[in-house]
Structure formats: C-alpha cells, structure tokens
User: What shape does this take?
Amino acid sequence: MPVRPLVVIIDDEVEVLNALERILEEEFQVLKFSDPEVFINQLQQKKMSAASVIICDQRMPKHQGVEVLALCATEIPQATRILLTGYADLDVVIQAINQGGIYRYLHKPWEPSDLIVTVREASRKHQLLEEAKLLEKAKTDFMILINHELKTPLTSILNFTHLLKDTSPLSYQQTHYLDRIIQSAERLQKLIDNTLLILKVEAKQLNPQITKVHPSQLRWQVAPEYQNLMQLKEINIHHNIGIDKFLVTDSRLLVLCLERLTENAIKFAHPKTTITFSITPTSPYRANIAIENEGPTVPPEILGQYGTPFLISQPILNHHQGAGLGLSVVVALLRTLNTQLKIENLHHGVRVSFELGMI
Assistant: This one.
C-alpha cells in the first residue's frame, strides 16, 4: 500500500487543527502543531524532511505564518507551503509570496471541498519536484557513468589498438581488422561525447563564455571519417562571408555546432557538389550563419523532429544514418547560446541556419 503524503499543520487554535485533520486524514498523513516554536525546533533538527505540504496560520502568538513559512522555504524547500489567514490582508499575502514562497493562501472559514482540492494540488506539486530531483540525479549519475565506466575502457581500447597497429610485421588482413576496430571505437567515442554534451546542456553544466569573435578567427575541422568521405565524394566547401563585424557568442560552442553541421552536410551531399558556408547580416545587430548542401531533402515527417535525440526511422535501422544525435547536439548548444536551428528544404538540397548577435 503506497505511503500517504505527509501534511503538517501549524495553528494555535486546537479546534482549527482538529477540523483540518478531519478533512484531510482520509487522504493524507496529518501532523499537527499548536505551538509554532515546537514545530520550528523540529524543523531545525531536520525532522520535517518528509513533509509534502505545510499549512500555517498567519496570526499566532510569538510567530507569524509568513515568518514560519519563510523558514520552511530555507529548511525544506521541496515542501509546498500554504498560508491560512482569517484576514483579507493583501500586504500579508504579498509578503508571504515574497518571503515564504507560498503556493496558495486560504481564508478562514474555508470550504472543505476547496481545501481538499488545494492540498491535493499542493501535494502533486511536491511530488513533481521530487521526481524532478530524482531525474536530475539520474542525469548526473549517467554523466559519471559515461565519463568513467565507458570512456575509460574505450580509451584503453583505442590506445592499445593504435600501438598494436604500429608493431610489425602485420599482414594486410591484420591491418584491415585493426582499422575496422579503430573506426568502430572512434564512432562509439563520438556517440558517447555527443550524449555527454547533450546531458551537460540539459543539466545546465555548460556555461557559455560570451566574447567577440571575428569570422576570420573561426577554425573548425571535421572528423577524419568525414574528411575521407569528402575526398571520396569529391565535395568542395565554399565560404561566403558577407560581414566584417564581430559575432557575439561563445567561439568554442559555435565551432562545435559548425563541425557537426558540416559533417551532416557532407554525409547527405551528392557526389561532386559544393557545400556553401555563409554569414550574412539580417539587421545591423544580427547575423545569419548558414550551411547549404546539394542532396536529398528532409522528409516532412522528420523535419519537425530533427532535434529529437536517438530519433528512430527505417533508414537508421538499416544503418544508413547516424543515431540522430548530431543535430540534437547542435539544437542543445544553440539553445545555450539563446538561438535556435532552422532547417529548410531547397529545390536542390537542404539549408540549415541560425542567428547570432553582431557588433
């Protein structure tokens, strides 16, 4: 049987405490305090951490409800706080919102149906906050797992495979096998790095360092597999820089975006075509950064989901595409830079773009 949420009530009037208990006890565990100082003592001793909802009267001897709820906001911020008052005092309510972070306030006398609905909603809010905390912890734990449990053995695999390849003599077949191992390990390493990057963005652990960056200072290099693919498909990259001003952004995050967008363009470009990278002004203080390639257009059913990590489609299941992380990384990084990715189908291919500030 699931544990019922704990509701704590503080009111110096015993009749009020008993009335509230009768209304709530069928759905909730109820803990009553007629003396706010006893409650504060237990609160400071960390004995109230299980509280889901705190209901506190405003006017009590020695302590006001605003004061008690403000203390609750510090000691048990996850608990949802409700102020109970017999006075239509707007200033008190505003003070309670600012200092105690109250969820709702209730007037005496209350309607039992309104009271129970309010406490249910407050309890649900507390549950959602707790679930969010667990999710945040899961993200952090997963990042630790990726960093240590996956990246450490993968680094050893790559290092020792490269050492083995440098030994001689090796047959053509042995060299071929080692090359395939290295290629697969590097692909796995990139998948791990992309996943970790998305998680860092979602956990708000990737703090951008905004500076002035001139387009001529931008240097990025695609992964070796895409350099080889460019040569195999005889693809060229043309740069069209239409501004002589500074971009206002984090150059490191911008370069990461450009690397992944370029790799994506190479992957889908037709052989013997040109990929165009351009920066053009859209206003005196905004610039548009775009990459165009000649190739197949994006299917309409995929176009609205391009930022979804691990998007599964039939081509992915047939290993014709990646795991759906490349563009997801770009979408996440651009969100950190307070802009967003735009994808357009052209008559001859696809254009991806975003805007940045310019001075």
Remarks:
- The longest strand covers residues 274-283.
- The chain is about 50% helix and 20% strand.
- Residues 165 and 174 are 9 Å apart (CA to CA).
- The chain has three domains: 6-110, 133-202, 211-358.
